[in-house]
Amino acid sequence: MPESPNYTTVLDSDSRRAPVRVAFVTRRTSPHVKATDDPFVMTHPETLLRVAIATEVLMILLSVVSLVFNAPLEGMADPIQTPNPAKAPWYFLGLQELLHYFPPIVGGVLIPTLVVIALIVIPYFNINIEAGGLWTKNRARRLRVLTISVIVLTIGLSILEVWAILAPTLFVAALMYWTAGTPPDSGGRLRRWLTSKPLPFWIMTWFLIEAIVLTAIGTLFRGPGWSLVWPWGGSL
After folding, report:
1. 142 contacts 135 by C-beta, under 8 angstroms
2. Bridge partners of residue 14, in order along the sequence
3. pLDDT tens across 75-117, in order?
4. Residues near 13 by beta carbon (within 8 Å), at least 6 away in sequence
5. Is 222 left (phi over 0), alpha (psi -120 to 50) or beta?
6. Which of 4, 10, 61, 224 reaches 20 to 30 Å from 157, CA-CA?
7. Does the reported pTM lie above 0.85?
């Protein structure tokens, strides 16, 4: 404050705009008493320039790789001789694995449709980005819900013999139980970090692990007749 401030009386709703004045806030205005200036980054040129640079670097890397290494292409397609096994591109092998375990209507239509609908709908929810850890509130009730969900999934996947999905599910559930009894300020660094994560983190982690496992099995461990084989040859 200056030693001899000159105060004047004005009508205003922003205290930062009139720092040395006495402002009378009317009923129909919202007083802006405490606020901070949030950092802004303009889309142009900052963001667009970074995207352009990243795109050019990626194009250069792909050009160098294509000049140095030959693409792993097979021979000309022959409709008379179908390859065994007939595999989809690597990014569809997880879906092809689902078709192996579930009926076509479930693995090829229902599950992908639910995933696409979730990707469309979830952004419209009012999600709290700064959500607290999963076990910070209602720990006992959430443990019961987790236990019931794990039991139901274990029984259902065991009956269908979908071990490739059951194993990651039990792994993620074990991590969740491991963090359930840990206070936020105790345990090792990894345990404290996992304890602070909300439910969406665990759901996304489970989804990514499932996708990686199914894709790896379809890429490395599927042989003739869609049987399980070792990556270096020989049946499992």
Report:
1. yes
2. 32
3. 787 888 888 888 888 888 888 998 888 888 888 888 888 888 8
4. 23, 25, 26, 29, 30, 31, 32
5. beta
6. 224
7. no
